[in-house]
Every structure is written in structure tokens, then in C-alpha cells.
Design a protein that fits this description.
This protein has helices at residues 18-31, 47-60, 71-84, 98-115, 130-141, 150-153, 158-167, 242-253, 280-296, 299-317, 324-336, 381-391, 393-402, and strands at 10-13, 35-41, 64-69, 119-121, 146-148, 180-184, 187-191, 221-228, 231-235, 238-239, 260-266, 272-278, 342-349, 352-359. The protein is an alpha/beta fold. Helix 4 (98-115) packs across helix 5.
Length: 404
């Protein structure tokens, strides 16, 4: 008796880019199963964009399309800890993409179970980080699900995918031929021929959020960012949700080219990699939050946080956010934020973010009777002399021992 044919749908993690658009008709043809596309909105999709994704999915042949708004969960589960930890990779890149993948894998797995299927598909290639992030998260969260990855397993090239869609008179996705774009709440990344080598930048026309920041510079603008216990809570006196703050700062900062950069770093799979990014909100919040912490945290609090930010960022980048060690680090980040409340005054100029000042009811600067360089206040000149004698002992002993 022949085996019963599997007619359950395949849930495809759908970004609307070339790889996932190609997969809708390809999976339909080669697996003979209906395709349901699911887009997990971790930011960067407005109403018009959502409508376009749904229409594009239908045009490629999907039987249904779902979009899940995961922005608030994304901030709570991931981004707030990147802010509290002042986390960047390579002391530059604010982890625009890697931080999204666990959230997306989680939501895709939940949707697959809801739709009663045990098969999901993604469009990651064998040459990048996302295949590892997605599959590590999926195997941790839902090991019973079958993961289908044709772009990786059959090594499809971009031109082959374009030719496949063209031959069937199917529409080509935007940027399909030249640049790979990923846009989310924490910023946008752009990959193209220029980022495949180390020498140059992408052209001005390829930037997504800050296209005319330097060719048409705007007048300087000042804003105040509000924080409460390490969380962003508003801008310029207006109380907002954290997601609203992030989205507003992207709108305010992008025209100035704030957070624009190119990151060269180590990939999960061992190669060097390079990606252009635009992260105006991440750059503003990370810089503003760090300056506020300098006002209210003790030196030892800052140092222990800095020692954990590096490994935490590495594990987020590598798709290991579900490892329990990340919960341990997050507990310390949360504890450290008890007094990180106040205002940060920022100045935007073309290509420049300047912190003009910080205020906090928990300022360690304001409670001191001494003023650096002006008056001692808390101690006498004799105390200062004794202090200098004592703290110089280690160096003095070392010099004395070397002279024997």
C-alpha cells in the first residue's frame, strides 16, 4: 500500500525578499503542498508594506499569508537588554539582524503548531549567519518540526532565482538584483557587491533610511530622551511606549545619517563578513543610555556590566539567546538599572550625534560636596596627601624591587 501523500501546508518564513519570494512557487512545484507565508513583524513594516507583502505572497501562489506583530515582544525579550547592556558587536554594530532571528523562529514555530503542520521552510543560504541562528532557535524551541531550506541545501544563486521567476512571468521583488535588505525595529542592514570586499562603501543610492543625509543636510536639531530604570520612556517631554520611542528616533535621526556604518566582523561560520547598516534609533539610545549610566552607576557597576556586554552580544549574534547563561546576564543588567532614570539631551547634526548633557535624581555628581578641579569638600588637604601616599605604594614597591 503506497504511503499516504503529505498534503499539509508548509509554513514559509516570508520576508518578501528574493529568496523567500522564489521559494513560494518553487516549494509548491517541488513538494506538491500548499504554501502559507508568515511574516513576523519585528519592525520596519508600515501598513502599505504589509499590504504589499500580502499581495506579493498571493501573486507567487501562497494559499494564505499571515503577519504577526512581534515588535513589543521583541523589545521586551531582546532589545531592552541590548540597551541596558550597551551592547554592540565590534564596538560598533548594534546587532540589527541577529537579535531578530530568535523572535522570528519562535513566532513561526507557534504559527506552525496553530495551523496543524509539522513543516516549516526558510530562505537562508549556506553562506551566512541566519541559517545557524534560525535552526538553532528552531531545534531548541520545536525539535519536532521538519525544517526545509532549499536555498541552502541546493545552493541556488540569486541569478537562478531571478531567472526562475522571470520564466514564469512572476514579479521580481524590489532590490532583488542588486542589494539584500533587512529592515527591523533596531535598524536596517544592506548587503551588496561592495560589502563582499573590504575596500569601499555602498553608493548613496543604496542606503535605505538616510539616502540624502549628506547631499541634502538638515539644520541641527535638539531632543531630550527620557529613561526610567534603563528603559526609554519618552522624547521631548512626551511619554511613549518603548517601541514608539524607537520608531520615533528612527524618523528623527535617519535624515541626519545617525547610526550609519559598515561593520566588518567575524561570522558564526568562521569567515570574515561585512555589512552596511543604518541604525539611528539604536545609535541614539545606546549612546544616550551609556552617558546616563556614567552619571548614576558606580565605577564597579560599570566595569562588571562592560565585561558581560561583549559575551552577551556574541551569543545574541550567534543565535544562542535561548541559552540560560543569557538569563543570568540579563538578571545583572536589570539589577544594575534601578537608578538609571533621567533625561539625556542630544544634538543631531549631519553625520553626528552629540550628547549635550544628562540629568538624574540619582546623580552621583550632584550629591558630592567636592567639585572636580575646584574644591575638595569631602576631605582635607592632609587627607589627599595621605591618599596619594597609600595608592602609590604598589608602584613604589615595584620600582624599589627592580632596583635591587
Amino acid at each position: 500500500m503506497p504511503a499516504e501523500k503529505n498534503s499539509s501546508p508548509i509554513v514559509l518564513a516570508y520576508s518578501g525578499g528574493l529568496d523567500t519570494s522564489f521559494l513560494v512557487p518553487w516549494l509548491t512545484e517541488n513538494y506538491g503542498r500548499p504554501i502559507i507565508t508568515v511574516t513576523v513583524d519585528t519592525g520596519g513594516i508600515d501598513a502599505a508594506g504589509a499590504k504589499t507583502l500580502a499581495e506579493r505572497s498571493k501573486a507567487y501562489g501562497a494559499i494564505a499569508h499571515h503577519q504577526i506583530d512581534a515588535r513589543a515582544d521583541y523589545f521586551e525579550q531582546v532589545l531592552r537588554f541590548l540597551v541596558m547592556g550597551n551592547v554592540r558587536r565590534g564596538q560598533l554594530y548594534p546587532l540589527c539582524v541577529g537579535a531578530e532571528r530568535v523572535m522570528q523562529a519562535q513566532q513561526i514555530a507557534l504559527m506552525a503548531r496553530k495551523l496543524g503542520t509539522n513543516s516549516i521552510a526558510h530562505g537562508c543560504t549556506a553562506a551566512g549567519n541566519d541559517q545557524v541562528r534560525f535552526e538553532v532557535a528552531m531545534r531548541t524551541l520545536a525539535p519536532e518540526l521538519e525544517v526545509i531550506a532549499p536555498v541552502r541545501d541546493k545552493a541556488f544563486k540569486r541569478q537562478e532565482e531571478l531567472d526562475y521567476l522571470t520564466a514564469r512571468n512572476l514579479p521580481l521583488p524590489p532590490y532583488g538584483a542588486a542589494y539584500s535588505i533587512n529592515r527591523g525595529l533596531w535598524g536596517a542592514t544592506i548587503g551588496g557587491k561592495e560589502t563582499l570586499t573590504s575596500e569601499g562603501s555602498i553608493p548613496d543610492s543604496a542606503w535605505v533610511l538616510s539616502k540624502d543625509a549628506f547631499t541634502n543636510p538638515r539644520p541641527p536639531a535638539k531632543h531630550t530622551i527620557h529613561f526610567e530604570k534603563g528603559r526609554p520612556t519618552g522624547i521631548d517631554g512626551k511619554t511613549m511606549s518603548a517601541v514608539e520611542v524607537v520608531e520615533a528616533l528612527e524618523t528623527l535621526g535617519a535624515p541626519y545619517g545617525i547610526g550609519r556604518g559598515i561593520h566588518l566582523g567575524d561570522t558564526i561560520i568562521g569567515t570574515k563578513g561585512r555589512v552596511a547598516f543604518e541604525a539611528p534609533a539604536a545609535e541614539t539610545l545606546l549612546t544616550a543610555h551609556r552617558e546616563l549610566e556614567k552619571l548614576v552607576l558606580t565605577p564597579r557597576q560599570q566595569r562588571i556590566k562592560e565585561s558581560l556586554a561583549g559575551p552577551y552580544g556574541d551569543w545574541v549574534h550567534e543565535g544562542q539567546l535561548l541559552d540560560p547563561v543569557c538569563r543570568d546576564i540579563e538578571a545583572l543588567f536589570l539589577s544594575s538599572q534601578e537608578r538609571v532614570t533621567g533625561k539625556v539631551h542630544v544634538l543631531f547634526r549631519a553625520g553626528s550625534l552629540f550628547i549635550e548633557g544628562v540629568e538624574s535624581p540619582h546623580s552621583l555628581m550632584a550629591v558630592s560636596k567636592g567639585v572636580y578641579g575646584e574644591s575638595h569638600g569631602e576631605w582635607s588637604p592632609q587627607d589627599a596627601l595621605g591618599f596619594s601616599k597609600i595608592v602609590s605604594l604598589t608602584g613604589m614597591f615595584h620600582a624599589r624591587a627592580g632596583g635591587k
